Amino acid sequence: MKFIDKLRRRMDEVKNVLAIGLDTDIERLPEKFSKDSHGMYEFNCMIIESTKNLACAYKINSAFYESSGYDGMRTLQKTRDLIGDIPVIYDAKRGDIESTAKAYAKAAFELFDFDAITLSPYMGEDALNPFLKYEEKYSFVLCLSSNKSADNFEYHGEPPLYSEVAHLVNQKNYESGNCGLVVGATVAGRLAEISKMAPKSLILIPGIGTQGGDAYAVMHSVDHQKIIVNVSRAIIFADDPVASAMNYSKILSF
């Protein structure tokens, strides 16, 4: 089943656009969990088991697993397997020459069996093409990010770089049907504009909560059928993760 169909079916089940991000920073684990890959996995199990009826998807940030070496990567695989049939996005932000991109795509989609991935577009479309060849998978391309220094590059030029990225993604999605965008919640005011540049592309929206993005503003900016909204630390490291997940699932409901 194609990612987009799998996601739509899941959204219809939970009636929201909430993706929960497993940005599992060992240093922030609650005291009852050991500060190692075993504790990381136990924590992920707790989060997944207690929120799986609330989330339309999960997003796993590779950095927090890679930084724990071999054991961390085993935890990455075990976590992905635990999630099962719920859509899973691999937040890896890959972007390299075509031969390297082929290897990255094989790892993400064949070895780890992720449903989707985040990519960096700044080496051009040949860095994207190997991922788009996996017809049942989906690629979210960085367009306008939520970090404070995004304006170092993304707003430069006329038209601005983020606009060029959106138009490229629109072209690639027209060809392949599996290419979307990443637009930060901190720039919700530009969501409608960017959505019009790539009208058939799904938009992954990070930056809610800790980074300052407003979930209400996002839901009022663009059609919910075009977006998937990720919340990570504001849920998993909340005093009550389940209560936080329930709150965001209501805000992001339709």
Structure commentary:
This protein is of the alpha/beta class and 254 residues long. The protein has a single domain (3-251), classed as TIM Barrel (Alpha-Beta Barrel). 42% of the residues lie in helices and 16% in strands. It contains 11 helices and 8 strands. It has helices spanning 3-14, 37-51, 63-66, 69-83, 98-111, 129-132, 161-176, 191-197, 215-219, 233-236, 241-251, and strands at residues 18-22, 57-61, 88-94, 116-119, 138-144, 179-183, 203-205, 227-231. It has an 8-stranded parallel beta barrel, surrounded by 6 helices. Helix 2 runs parallel beside helix 4. The model has no long low-confidence stretch (mean pLDDT 97).
Gross geometry: globular
Radius of gyration: 17 Å
Number of domain units: 1
CATH topology: TIM Barrel
Catalytic activity: orotidine 5'-phosphate + H(+) = UMP + CO2
Family: Belongs to the OMP decarboxylase family. Type 2 subfamily.
Domain Orotidine 5'-phosphate decarboxylase: 17-248
Protein name: Orotidine-5'-phosphate decarboxylase
Q: Could you give a short description of this structure?
A:
The chain is α/β, with parallel strands linked by helices and 254 residues long. 42% of the residues lie in helices and 16% in strands.
